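quick one before i forget lol
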Amino acid sequence: MMDHFAKATYGLIGYPLGHSLSPVMHNTAFKALDVEAEYVLFPMKKEEIEGFLKELKDKDSPIFGLNVTVPHKENVIPFLDALDPFATKVGAVNTVVIDKNRRLVGFNTDGPGFLAHLTEVGFDAAGKRIAILGAGGAARAIVSVFCLLGSRPDSVRIYDVDKDKAVALVQDVGSRVDASHVQVVNSIDDLNIEIADLLINATPIGMKAADPSLVSEELLHSNMLVYDLVYNPPETPLLKMAKAKGAKSVNGLKMLFYQGVLAFQHWAEIQLPEPVKARMWEELEKACYKK
């Protein structure tokens, strides 16, 4: 089952990639499984994607799987041979499998990874009020998950500085699933954060020390969960404010972990043993928190 991993290369495409912890996680799994493979970074601008993906069709290519991160989760889709059903509904891809016929198949493990973490922290979205900052590929996966749940949130409000981008996201997702409870708002104030049950930062803001705070502290309250997809630094200004207001707060490291486990399982066509997953998480946590 794992034969195709022999001397294989896996990696991450995006731009820029300096902050990524994905190599730590996946190379830990290869080592734990005693598999001769490596996970590397492929920093790549939009105009380079088509040529890179076309080269993967070559039967002598050593690359058998990819992750995709900002800003390319939608950019890669025209160059793939097929999408799995969830990726089709989302309209964004974060995992690519190159099969034995060198066909490129796109998956989205961001949505399931996010949901797995929400479940772990004990948050049930049914009937809740949700506010989302940002309208990129990760937000798209999260919105799609909230649209596909059997028991859906009461409302999902989205704000992006580029309102047209947010509108396009909701219209696009809404063309494939019922997004009638999702609304694009004109300002952060219109997100109604002060009565929200869950606030999600799906923007990169918070990665840099000089980044402005998107949300004023007075909007946060103790009865909410604040979820920042940024995990480097592990405690962003938003999470510090949330903690100060007594709100439950988590970063995106566990989402990275869960989506990574699912991506690995797509590549390998196996269920990862629990001890291997435990090692992956241990090394991720160590790298993030510099333990």
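fyi DSSP finds nine helices and twelve strands in the chain.
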